[in-house]
Specification:
The complex is a heterodimer of chains A (168) and B (101).
Chain A: H1 2-21, H2 29-49, H3 53-77, H4 90-113, H5 130-137, H6 142-162
Helix pairs in contact in A: 1-2, 2-3
Chain B: H1 5-25, H2 29-53, H3 58-88
Helix pairs in contact in B: 1-2, 2-3
């Protein structure tokens, strides 16, 4: 049963991921953004299958909710009608495919080198519940957590400064 | 064959490849940005899979950090794109060739 769900969600993730970058029917960024939302939601399904319940919730709330709304907001703000007609250049496609093949070959080689990596693992027992993650987050990772809040503040100030009318 | 670590890693690698292809082949700044998000998500999936199958919660905490940093990055990047669009009236990388030799 779980395996069937894994294949379902993995196929959905990859299909929607493909439609984000190369939708054959539409070059409109809005369709890309919509398929990115679907990718993220099906990836939250994969997180649930991995027992990472807190991260699945965060993924839907923060990514599919906040980040994608921001994306759509900006797409609507910029009027991109003339952009749709442009073609994808063959040169970009070929270089892209070559670099993707190189990177994938590298990943596969690295994994094959460590082929006993997944062979003798103990059965997974970790539950990514909020309580368990919080216990780690507020003890071992307390300082990075606080630094992260400063980072968010810096990002906020930067965005306000960048979106001022008279950019100096 | 039961679904294990390898299955998740293959999914993650393929998704990363899709994102990389999008960054290199597409010419719209916003779509390039979305492809970057795809790559970040692929890395997240690999981290969560490793965390689950090695019984180590640190991986999930790092994913939590990555999601937060990605949110900040999206906010700043989109503000940059809007500022660029205001100045140049384009969100297309081939029109932004001022620094090209």
């Amino acid at each position: 049963m779980q395996d069937a769900f894994f294949y379902l969600f993995a196929a959905l993730t990859l299909l929607c991921g493909f439609l984000v970058i190369g939708n054959p029917f539409s070059r409109n960024p809005v369709t890309s953004a919509m398929f990115l939302v679907l990718t993220i939601v099906s990836m939250a399904g994969l997180f649930v299958l991995l027992h990472a319940f807190f991260l699945a919730a965060i993924q839907v709330l923060v990514y599919a909710g906040a980040v994608m709304v921001l994306f759509l907001f900006v797409i609507m703000l910029l009027d991109l009608k003339t952009e749709e007609r442009r073609k994808v250049k063959a040169f970009g496609l070929v270089t892209g495919l070559i670099s993707v093949a190189a990177i994938l070959a590298m990943i596969v080689k690295t994994y094959a080198f460590d082929s006993n990596l997944s062979a003798n693992l103990p059965p997974p027992t970790l539950e990514g519940s909020t309580a368990e993650l919080g216990a780690v987050l507020f003890t071992r990772y307390l300082l990075p957590f606080e630094i992260l809040s400063v980072l968010l503040l810096v990002a906020m100030v930067g965005v306000i400064l960048l979106s001022k009318k008279d950019l100096k | 064959m039961t679904v294990g670590l390898t299955h998740y890693l293959v999914t993650s690698a393929l998704l990363f490849g899709l994102g990389l292809l999008g960054v290199i082949a597409r010419r719209n700044l916003l779509v390039i940005y979305m492809s970057l998000e795809l790559m970040l998500n692929a890395a997240n999936l690999a981290l969560v899979a490793f965390s689950r199958f090695t019984n180590n919660a640190n991986g999930q905490v790092i994913v939590f950090f990555i999601i937060t940093v990605a949110a900040a990055e999206v906010a700043v990047g989109l503000a940059l794109i809007v500022a660029l669009y205001r100045k140049r009236q384009t969100a297309h990388v081939e029109d932004l060739a001022t620094m090209r030799l």
